[in-house]
Specification:
The protein has about 80 residues and is an all-alpha fold. Helix content is about 65%, strand content about 0%. It has two helices and no strands.
Length: about 80
């Protein structure tokens, strides 16, 4: 499965051998993005949140988590195989 960015639909490139630092950076980015979504929703003056916008946010968050999962898989595979590029 190829990951694509939600806005431009371009493929996301994952480094050949991501490090644990890369994974930590991506997880930090996910958390910051999620915190931003929560803050924006809590500051909204509307009683009804645009469902399409909420779906877009959740899909983006899901893509970021999927990328984190793939990076973790690569790091652990390389660690156990000792075949990092």
């Amino acid at each position: 499965m190829e990951l694509k960015t939600p806005l431009t639909d371009t493929p996301v490139q994952v480094a050949c051998c991501p490090s644990l630092n890369d994974v930590a950076d991506e997880i930090f980015g996910c958390r910051v993005a999620f915190d931003g979504m929560v803050t924006l929703l809590s500051c909204s003056n509307s009683d009804k949140v645009d469902i399409e916008l909420l779906i877009q946010w959740l899909k983006t968050f899901g893509l970021r988590l999927n990328l984190c999962e793939k990076m973790i898989q690569r790091v652990t595979d390389d660690y156990y195989d000792h075949t990092c590029c």
